[in-house]
## 1
Amino acid sequence: MTRKWWHDKVAYQIYPKSFCDSNGDGIGDIPGIISKLDYLQDLGVDIIWLSPCYPSPLADEGYDISDYYDIDPRFGTMADMEQLIEEAKKRNMYILMDLVVNHCSDEHEWFKKACEDPDGKYGNFFYLRDKKDGELPTNWRSYFGGPVWEDLPGTDKQYLHVFHKKQPDLNWENPELREEVYKNINWWLDKGLGGFRIDAIINIKKASPFRNYEPDRADGLCSIQFMLREARGIGEFLGEMRDRTFKNYDAFSVGEVFNEKPEEIPDFIGDNGYFSSMFDFNETIFGTSEKGWYDASPITPDDYKRCCFESQAKVGDIGLLSNIIENHDEPRGVSRYIPEGECCTQSKKLLAAMNFMLRGLPFIYQGQELGMENVPFSSIDEIDDISTLDEYQVALNAGLSPADALHAVAKFSRDNARTPMQWSGEANAGFTTGKPWLKVNPNYTSINAADQLEDPDSVRSFYKELIALRKDPDYKETVVYGELKPYLEEQHNLMAYYRKGEQTLLVIGNYQMEEQTVELPSEYHSEYKKILLNNYPELVQEGTTLILHGYQAVVLEM
């Protein structure tokens, strides 16, 4: 694997609307982000990924872009964005923006022109089909529910949208459209961006010719996944995009890639991969059901361990994954991967250590470093997320009571991650002096940055230690590039693995409330040289056996 500047970095995702509000309008903004750069630098962050802050009608919270060359006034100005890039550079930090090019907004100039002249140049920027009475071009279901086809206003045609109806899909088969995308990417890279996170990119290649598939729900529609499984040739688009943009700037790119086939991994993240890295979603998709969120299976500690190890084995040393516990599309990781009722400082630290010491780039989502948790929703009216609202309806249609449907979908709601960042115990968690756009999690008085900054035993302080270990010149080579090899893989509720490089490190986590014994490996004479990290003040040992407290996590140098 060719070594790159981003391999030893730590990334942090910001959801601008919920991070820090500088002007009291209840919405986070770019000046707010600038004001917190020192906080991020103190934590040890190198790369900051911003969720979309382009102009948008916010049908899908900014992932419906109406102008790729500007900043939404809600978040500030282009001058603010340029200042953010500049201030980040002063701190040796890089800014990533979201690249959302599977679709745009129906309020984008291209789509407006397509409505005016569907047979002209811009009509070919989208997937348009002639309208037939009582019949859809295909029976595919959009990610947010309902058919993927919508009437093109003022015409006798319909357009394709695999997400929200206000997010028309862009026709990547059209070279003119691709030229426009590359032009925009390079425009931003010329401004000094460090790179991009690439959204929903697997969707850009549709299986052709379009056809119906077997319906999988009572609505007579089928999951969009059936079509995507048959799509071939996406590499031509992605390779062209890499060569025309990222490669020329040595920019960092991380793909939101689902359903890749094992043989495609070198194409995606090998030395000449389409992207620098791609996210590991193995844990986030575990237990999903085609029926909907209400039917999802909870993930156990053993499941979580297996998911992580599967991903690591699949990728090996082809490239580096980007490892996540949560993001803007997922619930809070501590509420998902720690069994119900067992969320505490120690279990949050264990989850952090197990994830952070994996091979790959660690991505922290805002508030994750504080151990922020899911929100107690008392009514569906408190939820803003379109995905959750659709899944609530799916649960009701399946016969669940309103209370049970709310309970089922609240666990997975994207709003859990989108509540305002908890800066302090003051009003509105110190996020805004106004009325926050989404309710603040009521636990902000006990979980907030101000308290944790002063506490050497806080979750944030533990994240800071993890980051410091990753950057420690004595261990960096092993933590960044060392091989990952599971240890005692079959032991119940134990997650343990080696990182082997210049040294051998052993990461051990007792993934349960009860004490657990662990035999030290005989190949190292059942001895360790040094404790590099421990979420308890001590490590109990009897002979060759470690006695781990509930949720104890240690990193040992063997």
Note: The chain has three domains: 11-101+175-461, 109-160, 480-557.
## 2
Amino acid sequence: MAEGERPREIRLLALENMPDSTRSLLGMVEVYGNKSGLAPSAVRALERIYRRRVPSDRIMTPELVRSLCEASRETRRQVGALVHRSGEVDCVIVGDSSSLMLPDIGRLRAAEGRFRALRLVHTHLYGEPLTRDDLVDLTRLRLDLVAAIILTPEGDPRSITWAYNVPAQSAEERPYQVAGPFPYGHPEPHFGQLIASLEAEFAQKRRARAVAKDGRAILVHVGEKRVRGASLRAESRLGELASLARTAGVEVVDQVIQLRDRPDPRSVVGHGKLDEILMRAIDLDAETLIFDCELTPSQASSISTKTDLKVIDRTQLILDIFAQRAESRDGKLQVELAQLKYALPRLQQKDDSLSRLTGGIGGRGPGETKLEIGRRRARERVNRLEKELGELAARRKERKRKRLESELPVVALVGYTNAGKSTLLNALTDAGVLAEDKLFATLDPRARRLSLPDGRVVVLTDTVGFIRNMPADLFAAFRSTFEEAADADLIVEVIDASDPEHEQHLETTQRLLEELELGNRPRVAVYNKLDRLSAEERLAFDRPGQIGLSATDLSTLGPLLRAIASAARVRAPVASDSASV
């Protein structure tokens, strides 16, 4: 105990005996919520609620009920008290006639498997049971319990009802349980024992769950219901987002689809849907919400104010994957540049009111805020990265010039991410590069020599995979890497034939090639992963001008080799450091 600080019991006794007017003047009590238009007598009635104490075995006491009812009669509004497990009243809140707005009570959870150690006891004026807002507050804020005192028209207690969180066993079950309404005076359960048993159940359930490397996440997709096939498209897009999440090391515990006329400008999903998602996140112990779109700074801020969950969008998820998988210095710098460019506008949104001068003449005083220092250093780092990448691009250009001087034809493998480009490179050249059934397994271009059956040699290049709605900053940062295909004599577009959206993937690839000014290069379409299709489904890819194969089956690679040989420039046989196919 600090010197001069009175013991807790003495301080509480002093507050009990202190006049309400003195307590208010000293700022020792504060009433939260809708205080406009309240008479002084109503304010005093609200402040007197702070005097009440509730023992650990009770949900509420007659004295607390009497004080809440008196304050509701004075104000004609709902009145509530957040009661701590210690028995003290932490907050007194006044709302309107049908609802309460709880103050900020800190982080979403006090600890894993634990509740908030606060319960809400409040009045209902019109005989209504617990409302949706009450239940959302219970689950979202992880309160111990929410209790409602249902009043008569005269403002006296008629009945009581309460609800508490329970571990749901399935997505269909509610994550809470409601008791009552019971006539006022009905016996209550032992509050302390009830909460202790519930926390033990939640802790046991959490221990039984496998914990992913980077936590548990709920995926959210919002689609336009006016678009034909909106439901199927939403499921496909959410499937791709789930693949991205798994690639990033996140365990997907739930997926949410909402079809709307247009996304909500503030919260993307509707407010009611967001409340449902937050309730599911708490029940499933999810730490992250991942939205299948690019959130604006204001949307991310609006959603974050309603929850303590980590809120990220599709762009951040892709940037995180690139950051994990970049191996070369070039790739690492490109990822860092893209991340900084993404973060800068969001840093700017933090608090423009913190603007300060940087010191010097006319700028004496507090100097820069931490936020401004962060923004300035980020901009300086962006400039430095762009300079370093320019130098690396010059070296890469020199290497390409030497490669061209060798007169070896160049064939570039391009296509949607996870279409099988790296697997095809390994099959053709025995390159041994990483090939995984994950998105963006390849970030750094790989070039290998390929000996054709007739003895000629070409350079086969594996490139970074494309993806729909490629983040603009990421595309700009990796543009030089994508341009590995710029000097190709032949572009081999690899398409995953087993993906139901392979046509959209092909459109994405062609659009990005146009942006790279590679639309006029000779191209051949290769439909990969035919081994995953039935014999009848494979017939759809048996057309002139396209090649069907399985990169894991060497016997299917002959047509591709002949296409490469016919498109490649003729050159005398030279020694090769790769296996001949």
Note: Residues 220 and 256 are 5 Å apart (CA to CA).
